[in-house]
Design goal:
nine-stranded antiparallel beta sheet, single chain, Immunoglobulin-like, about 575 residues, six-stranded antiparallel beta sheet, alpha+beta
Length: about 575
């Protein structure tokens, strides 16, 4: 320390002496004074160079690269930043199901999530840590070829405490010789970062015949993006991934495929939507080149929430046909994240989606999709969630052509589809619609209910005949719902057969007529675009609004008439 301060001490002494000399010779010739000043500046410059020389010496001393190696995994950290002594140790955590299950998870109420305390925030962060570890493990487990993947975290310790180097360093992770590096993919994911290979901070290098995945780590210069930051829970995933199928090269036929969703605008990074997909699906390539895919879904855990897919589409929301939903023991549809299952979001089990070539990325072999997992929008209005779907890309792996396979013989529609249509229709009030259109709905509903009861608790399963009947009767009900037309607006007297002893004043009658006229005018407006509204929501909203308005008007008149009667009797 003293040796480092010595140049500054010498410099200070020289400055004092120089100033004294100048003061004593102030009457000397100007030439001499200028010479003294030049000498002073020269000395100052020399001192600065001296100080820089000491720093360069320290840096030069640190040019000898220090390596820290984890013997078990072969992972190396190396740096010449100057603050690595070589006595540090690496802590490598294998991120696997056992580790993930050991992480804490907390159940939080809606109030805790919407208005979290400091303690609630800590719990939410812990839930996110578990979620990220689970996501990166599942993504590589699904996308890797023959189990060729690793997921882990790397931290550094000094004197038993977690430590982040001040300067940059390199993290070198050995790649098994059995891996094909041309199919290599990697991701770093944590609370503040999500970086995917290839990236300027990542590359594959070869040292002594061994391939390494090299990550340039910023250290304390950018702690959020440091792999060594334990607080931010930065997971590293890497593996030899399966190759995506180029559907443009598939000929006519039916293919068994392994579908997956990856994050939009990424090459291989798994999307949480992919966690709701079953491992097997069917891709149908028709004679004209058009394509459609049959997908099956399952639930997944998001923190402590059971998350389900609600709906999805490729180009428009008309591209999807729902085949089956999750039901309870009584056959009723189960709510998806608190939404009404018959008119809003149910828990999707299977569907068919038309694929549009307009959405196909011919370079990365993926279809751009819109998906709605309601758990991501729990607590928000239905229309807000519906009109703001999540972007994700659908890819296929391992397309296997099935010879002499007729996809039309796959039973699709299960009885939950019919149950949803029945329950939706039964919520509608006949008084709000024209008799002609509602009678058609009533007929379709009665026919559907009769067939549903005949099933006696049995589902379509693999029975093509039952599946087709379910589809036919469900479609009949849905068509009748769409064809409903508002009935003529009724006066309060018509809605309430009991005539009041005294007629309401003309002012109230005029107000009621204006209200009814306005409602009829609004009801005649065309529905919004399908992307903005669910297919069956318009009729429902109109009916409720009209019914409530008329009921309100009727109640006001009855109360007023009662008061008038009482006043007249006095």
């Amino acid at each position: 320390m003293k040796s480092a301060l010595l140049p500054f001490y010498i410099y200070a002494e020289i400055q004092i002496n120089l100033r004294g000399e100048v003061m004593n010779t102030i009457h000397r010739k100007r030439k001499n004074i200028y010479c003294k000043k030049i000498l002073s500046f020269a000395i100052v410059f020399a001192m600065v160079i001296s100080v820089l020389g000491i720093k360069n010496t320290e840096h030069s001393y640190a040019q000898n690269t220090v390596q820290i190696k984890d013997v078990k995994t072969g992972i190396i950290y190396e740096s010449d930043s100057g603050n690595i002594t070589g006595k540090e140790v690496l802590e490598v955590t294998d991120v696997n199901p056992a580790y993930i299950n050991s992480l804490p998870s907390y159940k939080l109420t809606d109030e805790q999530q919407n208005n979290p305390t400091d303690e609630d925030m800590k719990k939410m962060i812990e839930n996110l840590k578990k979620q990220y570890s689970e996501q990166i493990y599942n993504s590589f487990a699904k996308a890797s070829k023959d189990g060729k993947f690793k997921s882990f975290m790397v931290h550094m310790k000094r004197d038993g405490k977690y430590f982040i180097p001040k300067g940059k360093g390199k993290l070198l992770i050995p790649i098994p010789n059995s891996w094909d590096t041309s199919k290599f993919h990697a991701t770093i994911m944590g609370l503040q970062m999500n970086i995917n290979y290839p990236d300027s901070t990542m590359k594959i290098v070869n040292r002594g015949g061994q391939n390494y995945f090299e990550i340039t780590d910023p250290g304390q210069k950018d702690t959020e993006f440091s792999c060594l930051n334990k607080e931010f829970h930065n997971n590293i995933g890497m593996g030899e991934v399966r190759q995506k199928v180029d559907t443009s090269k598939l000929t006519e036929g039916v293919y068994e495929v392994e579908p997956d969703f990856i994050k939009a605008n990424t090459e291989n990074t798994g999307s949480m939507a992919g966690g709701t997909l079953q491992s097997k699906g069917y891709l149908v390539v028709k004679k004209d080149g058009s394509k459609e895919v049959y997908l099956n879904f399952k639930s997944m855990k998001v923190s402590e929430i059971e998350a389900h897919m609600a709906t999805l589409w490729n180009k428009t929301d008309a591209d999807v046909t729902h085949f089956d939903f999750v039901t309870d023991k009584k056959g009723a549809l189960v709510s998806n994240a608190g939404f009404e299952p018959n008119t809003e979001f149910a828990c999707l089990k299977s569907a068919k989606i038309k694929l549009s070539e307009d959405t196909y990325d011919k370079e990365e072999f993926k279809y751009h999709f819109k998906v709605i997992p309601p758990a991501m929008g729990a607590g928000l209005p239905f229309k807000e969630v519906y009109n703001d779907p999540i972007d994700a890309d659908l890819v296929f792996y391992n397309a296997k052509k099935l010879d002499n396979f007729d996809v039309n013989k796959i039973p699709t529609h299960q009885k939950s589809v019919l149950r949803r249509s029945i329950d939706k229709a039964k919520r509608l009030d006949s008084s709000h619609y024209s008799k002609e259109t509602y009678d058609k709905l009533a007929s379709a509903l009665a026919d559907g209910e009769k067939y549903y009861d005949q099933l006696d608790g049995k589902d379509a399963g693999t029975n093509q005949e039952i599946s087709s009947a379910i589809a036919k009767k469900s479609e009949a009900i849905e068509a009748a719902i769409k064809a409903l037309k508002p009935g003529e607006a009724k006066t309060p007297e018509e809605l309430n057969p009991k005539k009041p002893e005294k007629q309401p004043d003309s002012k109230n009658i005029q107000n009621t007529k204006k209200m009814n006229k306005s409602q009829n005018k609004n009801s005649s407006k065309s529905p919004k675009d399908k992307k903005q509204q669910p297919k069956t929501g318009d009729n429902m909203d109109l009916a409720l609004y009209l019914g409530l308005a008329l009921l309100s008007a009727s109640t006001v008149l009855v109360v007023r008439n009662k008061k008038n009667t009482e006043n007249n009797s006095k």
